[in-house]
Amino acid sequence: HILGFDNAIAAGEVFSGAFLGNNISPLSDTTNLAAGIGGVNLFEHILNMMYTVIPAFIISIVGYIFLGHQSGSADLQSVDAMVQTLHQGFWISPITLLPVAVLFLFAWKKVPAIPTLLVGSTVAVILAFINDHHLSLAKVSTILMSGYVADTGDQSIDTLLSRGGIESMLGSAALIILALGLGGLLIKFNIVATLIDKIKGYVNNPAKLIALTALS
To answer: Transmembrane stretches, by residue range (predicted)?
Structure first.
């Protein structure tokens, strides 16, 4: 909206990218959950997901390129103003990409998600202390828990940057915990096994298996 793009197209692009990342990222909660429940190797699961996710993503890119040519151009004055505000209030340097580089490196080395996130967060905290020597450990802890609150004077940028923190993910974490708890009860009471016995006779080809999985 800030750049003058069509809201519907921009939302679709963001959703497509998020869907891709959520399915093939070794740090994704749902990807780890699916691999864990299925009892398969995480990276084998990701490779198998790519057979369906990557073609859909390529089709989306082609579609958005076509739609982009039909819409107007970006408001470059707004872009310049935003960049100037960011340079005034933040440390803009290739060095700040180091936590992201660590995440990519650990993912490439097939390091588990939790150590990867811990090391990436630690590197980010170290860079924060290097950039601001007056930053306290209590302030960093608050940001990690509740998220960062921007105060640049530009409402659009403040709204964009004021987010994050562990608390923002508690809803998803609670949903996963409740789902696992309910799943455990269904397995313990033999409900899942009974349902599988009832339907496995109908699942005699991959198409039916995919359809039943989607319906479940």
So the answer is: 49-67, 88-107, 113-130, 173-196
Tokens of 190: 């033999």
Could you give the angle at which helices 7-24 and 29-38 cross, rounded to 10 degrees?
40
Instruction: Supply the pLDDT for residue 88.
Output: 79
Domains: count for the chain: 3
Shared domain check, 155 and 84: yes
Question: What whole-number distance in Å separates Cα of residue 167 and Cα of residue 159?
Answer: 17
The verdict on 153 and 193 lying in the same domain is: no
Q: What is the pLDDT of residues 59-113, one digit of tens each?
A: 988 888 887 776 666 666 777 777 787 777 778 888 989 998 998 888 888 888 7
Of 84-93, 167-176, 179-188, which has the strongest mean pLDDT?
Answer: 179-188
Residues 144 and 90 in one domain: yes
Q: 13: which residues sit within 8 A by CB, 6+ positions away?
A: 60, 64
CB 90 within 8 A of CB 15: no
Both 89 and 69 in one domain: the answer is no
**84 alpha-carbon distance from chain centroid:** 28
Verify that 138 and 91 share a domain, yes or no.
yes
What's 56-125 look like in SS3? HHHHHHHHHHHHHHHCCCCCHHHHHHHHHHHHHHCCCCHHHHHHHHHHHHHHHCCCCHHHHHHHHHHHHH
Q: Which domain holds residue 19?
A: 1-74
